[in-house]
Amino acid sequence: MDRSWMQLHSRRSPQYIDGVREFILFAHDHMKPGADKIWCPCYICNNHIQKAIEEVEIHLYAYGVVTSYTRWVYHGEAFELNDNNDSQNENDDYLDNVTEKSNSPNTEVREVIHDIRSGTTTFGYAGEASSSCNPDLPSSCGGVTNKFARLMRDAEQDLYPDCQRFSKLSFMVKLLHLKIFNRWSNKSLTMLLELLKEELPIGETVPCSYNEEYENEDECPCKAPRYKVRKGKGKKIPHKVLRYFPLKPRLQRLFISRKTAIDMKWHKDKRVEKENVLRHPADSEAWKDFDKKHESFAKDPRNVRLELASNGFNQFGNMSNSYSIWPVFLVPYNLPPWKCMKDPFFMMPLLIPGRMAPGFDIDVFLRPLIDELKELWEVGVKTYNASNGQNFQLRATLLWTINDFPAYGNLSGWSTKGKLACPSCNEDASHQYLHHWKKICYTGHRHFLPHNHVLRQSKAFNGEPERRSEPKLLSGEEVLGQLEHLDSTVFGKTDERGKKQKRSPQYLN
């Protein structure tokens, strides 16, 4: 169907009148059984208001049609682009010439929307959009389909009548980009939006406020659920609230962008390997050894290698010293070194707030993340790859953790205090108690030196030569073997009766 009539300025021309009649017939044929109203695509209603079909026709003659609404998704036309349909291809070519100008911000936004629509399995979009589906109302599937419909509507909607540079969506994306980089407050952005609404021509589509557009969203599966963890039974201790942000959608989004999907294979396709040069984690011995042991995982370079980092900090600075919040970050190391440590690729699956540090209870808080990492390692998740337009089974593994020494003790379970504080020395750690200062001193660092080193024979340090060899580096199997000899441990700070439990000497070294 020729839709060039939608670009005409004269609403009295025969071509425009015939086009409106064709649209009314199309909308009438695709109405749901029993429905008596359709969405009105005139400049005033802009697919926000449902009216009787006769009233919609009058509005189109009186106010004109939204020129960017060239795919009638609210009146029965499918979202999908049918590349095999010649008439559809001709229409798409026409739309490209009309709505996508060179250097237009709309071009990049349209590509992103197309990639998101192609990867429907990634975000769980279900069902087809229909003319009776209001993009602003919640749906039974959590509002995900309706949110995508809103994106489609905003991407096809002019910022103001006959605007050739921006759609509503591309303009808001630019504004939010400026807001983030310049640290505008929500209030300052709302004031700017109010000014723009007064300045732009009649028919503008700028939202009235930041809250109107982005705060009153429907419930989304990506919002972090709150897990309550009880720290003691029978005690007046408040529940500790854990916020967990699912990891799988974060990893899937890395492949929904074509550029990022290509960069996720940089470590395999573009990395230049040189002997004795470490420029990327893929050059490390740990990465190479992992590839040898797990060939099926290493065969697909899209599989993600992750690093975990966590520590506590006081977000209130000097105003409060009695509060500690623990974020847990994950970083994908598939990306180039100049990207993998940037903010856009940091993932925060866990946020543990509270007045006290989690301590050894962190193993309880990490449970949702550990379960999801196990699933990603053993099964994976179906993911759409925008670089080639195909789905694949994405897997992930955790290769490293980065943290300071006290946090290392909490995350690993090895106590970094006491007589056996050194995890490298393990059971061979040497110590000396200084009675005058009532401190423990660790004196065995010389056994890391070569056997013929002069300081090994010196008695100037503690009055004795050092004849021990360097401690053996334990494998994962040997560490698990040591754990089997420990007494049964109840995780957390309290036992099954709610009483504060003491760690066994073996657990605390």
> Biggest sheet, strands in spatial order?
3-4-7-6-5-10
The total number of structural domains is 3
Count of extended strands: 12
Mean of the pLDDT scores?
A: 76
Write the layout of secondary structure elements.
Layout: H1 14-29, E1 37-39, E2 50-52, H2 53-63, H3 86-99, H4 105-118, H5 120-123, H6 144-156, H7 168-182, H8 186-199, H9 210-214, E3 226-229, E4 240-244, H10 247-253, H11 258-263, H12 266-269, H13 285-293, H14 295-298, E5 304-310, E6 326-332, H15 337-340, E7 347-352, H16 362-365, H17 367-378, E8 381-385, E9 390-394, E10 396-402, H18 405-412, E11 432-434, E12 439-441, H19 454-457, H20 476-484
Parallel strand pairs: 5-10
Antiparallel strand pairs: 1-2, 3-4, 4-7, 5-6, 6-7, 8-9, 11-12
Helix pairs in contact: 1-2, 4-6
Your description of this structure?
It is a single chain. This protein has about 500 residues and is of the alpha+beta class. The chain has 3 domains: about 5-215, no CATH class; about 230-255 and about 265-375 and about 395-410, no CATH class; about 415-509, no CATH class. It is about 35% helix and about 10% strand. The strands form 4 sheets. A 6-stranded mixed sheet has the order 3-4-7-6-5-10. A hairpin with a 4-residue loop joins strand 11 (about 430-435) and strand 12 (about 440). Helix 1 (about 15-30) runs antiparallel to helix 2 and helix 4 runs antiparallel to helix 6. The radius of gyration is 31 Å and the shape is elongated. The model is unreliable at about 80-105, about 120-145, about 215-225, about 230-240 and about 505-509 (pLDDT under 50).
